[in-house]
């Protein structure tokens, strides 16, 4: 039986608020939203926090990829559309942490998302989850490198789903310990993907499907703080597609190096979202064509591993 993900690192904690740049100014929005509301989309700016200070950034243009799947049956003729949107690249300075997110357009909702960067060993991922109402996908990261690096954020957006909602779970993880928390979809739902968050950046994470037949998502956190911290897991669920789970074998990573695992969706299916983990520190996880790619850094003196998982739609 495969081990479930475990990852690693240390940073600092700060609170910050982001607001929209002109001319689409809205009231400030806390950078640690709890995506508990079930419904549709909204428009929000993107920003990245550097040592507790906000940097407002302009929205990006259209999607980097699109696909349409028509399902024509006598019982239920319908169709849905998938697009992948990105935000960035943006620059994050050494020792800084930040939140970045990318929005889905009106009429579409986020089923998955993540980030990639230009220094595989330099980034630690802390949070990754669908935003309130499925409006986009948000990720929190820390730059552990000695130089600035560039980061790109991703959202996998679907239109035409018959239902969409997010199922949360909350718990405490003790000081200097780890915990795995699972969130479950409602009966009759499909699992699209999932994620989670914590109340500190002094963490490392893993995010993955909770079992091969279980309709839910798990979030693993290693808490390096001296006090207990709140964590949340999120399952992104709904109906309108058939979701199929695929995963890779573990990729072995030698000490002091990094490596990746990529899983491809079966022919004729489109990626909904993904995750993964292993014993290495997760640094990147994002949609890669019709599949999912995840990178890990081995900070130890022994072999570590990483694996990739994807949910695919048909």
Percent strand equals: over 45%
Instruction: Report the CATH architecture.
Output: Sandwich
Rounded mean pLDDT score = 77
Show unreliable segments. Answer: 1-61, 68-77
- Number of separate strands: 24
Description:
Helix content is 0%, strand content 58%. The protein has 314 residues and is mainly beta. The protein has one domain: Jelly Rolls, CATH 2.60.120.690. The protein is globular and about 50 Å long.
Which helices and strands occur, and which strands form pairs?
Elements: E1 17-18, E2 29-30, E3 46-50, E4 53-57, E5 65-71, E6 78-92, E7 97-103, E8 108-117, E9 123-130, E10 136-143, E11 149-159, E12 163-173, E13 177-184, E14 190-198, E15 203-209, E16 216-223, E17 229-239, E18 243-247, E19 251-253, E20 258-264, E21 270-278, E22 281-287, E23 291-297, E24 304-313
Antiparallel strand pairs: 1-2, 3-4, 5-6, 6-11, 7-10, 8-11, 9-10, 12-17, 13-16, 14-17, 15-16, 18-24, 19-24, 20-23, 21-24, 22-23
Characteristic key phrases:
single chain, 314 residues, mainly beta, Jelly Rolls, four-stranded antiparallel beta sheet, 0% helix, globular, disordered N terminus
Gist of the model:
The chain is mainly beta and 314 residues long. The chain is built from no helices and 24 strands.
């Amino acid at each position: 039986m495969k081990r479930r993900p475990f990852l690693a690192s240390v940073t600092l904690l700060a609170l910050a608020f982001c607001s929209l740049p002109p001319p689409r100014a809205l009231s400030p929005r806390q950078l640690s939203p709890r995506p508990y509301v079930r419904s549709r989309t909204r428009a929000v700016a993107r920003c990245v926090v550097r040592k507790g200070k906000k940097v407002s950034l302009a929205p990006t243009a259209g999607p980097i990829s699109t696909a349409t799947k028509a399902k024509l049956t006598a019982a239920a003729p319908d169709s849905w559309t998938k697009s992948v949107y990105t935000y960035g690249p943006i620059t994050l300075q050494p020792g800084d942490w930040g939140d970045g997110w990318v929005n889905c357009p009106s009429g579409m909702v986020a089923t998955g998302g993540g980030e990639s960067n230009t220094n595989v060993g330099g980034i630690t991922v802390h949070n990754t989850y669908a935003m309130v109402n499925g409006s986009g996908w948000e990720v929190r990261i820390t730059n552990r490198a000695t130089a600035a690096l560039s980061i790109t954020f991703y959202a996998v957006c679907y239109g035409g789903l018959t239902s969409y909602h997010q199922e949360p779970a909350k718990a405490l993880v003790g000081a200097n310990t780890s915990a795995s928390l699972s969130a479950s979809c409602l009966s009759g739902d499909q699992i699209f993907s999932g994620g989670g968050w914590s109340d500190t950046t002094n963490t490392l994470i893993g995010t993955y499907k909770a079992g091969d037949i279980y309709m839910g998502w798990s979030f693993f956190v290693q808490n390096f703080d001296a006090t207990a911290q709140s964590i949340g897991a999120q399952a992104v669920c709904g109906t309108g597609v058939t979701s199929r789970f695929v995963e890779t074998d573990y990729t072995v990573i030698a000490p002091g190096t990094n490596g990746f695992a990529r899983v491809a969706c079966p022919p004729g299916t489109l990626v909904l979202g993904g995750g993964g983990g292993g014993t290495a520190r997760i640094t990147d996880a994002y949609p890669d064509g019709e599949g999912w790619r995840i990178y890990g850094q081995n900070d130890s003196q022994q072999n570590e591993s990483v694996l990739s998982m994807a949910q695919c739609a048909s």
